[in-house]
């Protein structure tokens, strides 16, 4: 049956790849990858020889129609991102929506995603939380911080290493120096670390020790 599979891939540790994910990637007619060079290494490791095509934020608007047509013609497709679950701060939403609108079955496999382990090991309340992903870089950034300053749920952010110190400084400015923060870096990898403390303490730590790698920031909601 023609179908779109959304297949999570490891965020660092290849042992987190599921048996089902490997089987699906071997069985589908073609794979869409955010970066074929990055995904090529993953496929080679698991001896997956399925045809792969590039599907990323710069071409997804143009390629969605053609992909939908291929699936409607009877092919099965798997979408993967560089790491984690597709459509979580990565390409995937546009294609998923188009498939749903065209009555194409979509099957999202469970698997790796960065924010869940970061949230759970933060020690901050996780019964209710809001996923913010990446903050605006310039336009709308101050407006977003002013809005989030009143958010009572735990907040989840993705951030790049070269912007982390600036963002932590904004947490101190808009949320207060004593707001609890947890920064998880390089999850599942050799140099994984989680630094917890007040916004001021975590800012001081990363000011003295510039971070590297993939970063998830968990911030306590307003009390």
Automatic annotation (TrEMBL):
Compartmental location: Cytoplasm
Alphabetized InterPro entries for the sequence: 4pyrrol_Mease (IPR000878), 4pyrrol_Methylase_sf (IPR035996), 4pyrrole_Mease_sub1 (IPR014777), 4pyrrole_Mease_sub2 (IPR014776), rRNA_ssu_MeTfrase_I (IPR008189), SAM_MeTrfase_RsmI_CS (IPR018063)
Residue intervals of the Tetrapyrrole methylase domain: 3-202
Catalysed reactions, as listed in the record: cytidine(1402) in 16S rRNA + S-adenosyl-L-methionine = 2'-O-methylcytidine(1402) in 16S rRNA + S-adenosyl-L-homocysteine + H(+)
Entry keyword annotation includes Cytoplasm: yes
UniProt GO molecular function: rRNA (cytosine-2'-O-)-methyltransferase activity
Record keywords, A-Z: Cytoplasm, Methyltransferase, rRNA processing, S-adenosyl-L-methionine, Transferase
Class of the enzyme per the UniProt entry, highest EC level: transferase
EC number: 2.1.1.198
GO cellular component, one term: cytoplasm
Function of the molecule: Catalyzes the 2'-O-methylation of the ribose of cytidine 1402 (C1402) in 16S rRNA.
Family (UniProt): Belongs to the methyltransferase superfamily. RsmI family.
Protein name: Ribosomal RNA small subunit methyltransferase I
Species per Swiss-Prot/TrEMBL record: Polaribacter marinus
Gene behind the chain: rsmI
């Amino acid at each position: 049956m023609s179908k779109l599979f959304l297949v999570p891939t490891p965020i660092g540790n290849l042992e987190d790849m599921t048996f089902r994910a490997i089987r699906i990637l071997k069985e589908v007619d073609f794979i869409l990858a955010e970066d074929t060079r990055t995904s090529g290494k993953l496929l080679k490791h698991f001896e997956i020889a399925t045809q792969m095509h590039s599907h990323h934020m710069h071409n997804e608007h143009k390629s969605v129609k053609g992909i939908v047509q291929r699936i409607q013609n009877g092919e099965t497709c798997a979408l993967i991102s560089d790491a984690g679950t597709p459509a979580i701060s990565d390409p995937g939403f546009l294609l998923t929506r188009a498939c749903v609108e065209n009555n194409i079955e979509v099957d999202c496999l469970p698997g790796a995603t960065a924010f869940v382990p970061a949230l759970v090991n933060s020690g901050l309340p996780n019964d209710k939380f809001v996923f913010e992903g990446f903050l605006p870089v310039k336009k709308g950034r101050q407006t977003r911080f002013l809005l989030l300053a009143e958010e009572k749920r735990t907040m989840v952010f993705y951030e790049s290493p070269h912007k982390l110190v600036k963002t932590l400084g904004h947490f101190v400015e808009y949320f207060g120096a004593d707001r609890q923060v947890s920064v998880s870096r390089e999850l599942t990898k050799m140099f994984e670390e989680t630094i917890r403390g007040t916004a001021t303490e975590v800012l001081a730590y990363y000011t003295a020790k510039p971070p590297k790698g993939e970063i998830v920031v968990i911030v306590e909601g307003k009390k």
